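Same chain as my last thread, 185 residues:
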Amino acid sequence: MASGLIAPAFKEWHVIVEALGAGEQILILRKGGIAEGKGGFAVKNQRFWLFPTVFHAQLDKTKPAAARFFPGTATDPKAVVLSYFAQVEKAVFLTDWERARSLDRFHLWSEDTVRERFDWSKPAGLYALAVRVFRVPTPIRISVTPELAGCKSWIEVPAPLPDSGSAQPVLPDGDFYNLLQQIGL
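reply #2:
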């Protein structure tokens, strides 16, 4: 593990974190969490843990194919397991709805959810982040404290990010860069 006691983490729905971890998608679409206020979302970190959150309406707000990533058993609301970290390869703020809609085949959110995020607050638009995802050899279980809870995108977790050589990318280089080119950010 790298030195340091804390590292940045990005909060995302459990089904999306698992899809990212399975190599099913490399795209994150984000407008911002309630706690981010008028400034909205910003790409604060280029490398971060993927922090899965369980939101009861995840299945209603994603495509049917996302159901396979929903936890089949009850998860512990007082703990989370960090299995993946991501590195941002491209980040773009999309202001054109048709461009955002054209990314549909590259993610598991429903079109209604993407539209809701796109239209949430001014200016209309959302961030598209193409990320390279890595699986850690030994997942880390951490307790969910009040500081880690809430509707915010970025948090700091008591788990240092692994050194570059100790984790494996979930997609081989060729597959990842082919998808990145298809997405065209």
